[in-house]
């Protein structure tokens, strides 16, 4: 009886330290990196899973694995930085949308137009900074509907990202 009571107390004491599994996507890499090879962006990681298939050719070995895309999360501060320096017009649009920017320091503005399914339709980059500058995003060849324009800015001292809904008419 004493053994059963002791086991019960030990089991009951272990409850506060027991944890369920996490449902967050988490990856622990032993090593990883990225490079540009012949104009193609390549990302690699080591130590994520067992090999599923391996292909090799002229000194390059490629093995399937699990790699999380590296995206910069958009937070409120980075959205406000973009929205305070960018205007989009006309919206709704029939031929093009003008992205007018007025960033204080020189940098790069990347514009990615996607449909509602997330398919990338257009990628444009523009060097901006030091005054008002305009870039046109063509939408004339698109079907009527809603699209997303994702803007990301990277300057010497500031970074930001924001998304805008663009409505195509006619």
Automatic annotation (TrEMBL):
<feature type="signal peptide">
    <location>
        <begin position="1"/>
        <end position="20"/>
    </location>
</feature>
<dbReference type="InterPro" id="IPR026444">
    <property type="entry name" value="Secre_tail"/>
</dbReference>
<keyword id="KW-0732">Signal</keyword>
<protein>
    <recommendedName>
        <fullName>Secretion system C-terminal sorting domain-containing protein</fullName>
    </recommendedName>
</protein>
<dbReference type="Pfam" id="PF18962">
    <property type="entry name" value="Por_Secre_tail"/>
</dbReference>
<feature type="domain" description="Secretion system C-terminal sorting">
    <location>
        <begin position="88"/>
        <end position="156"/>
    </location>
</feature>
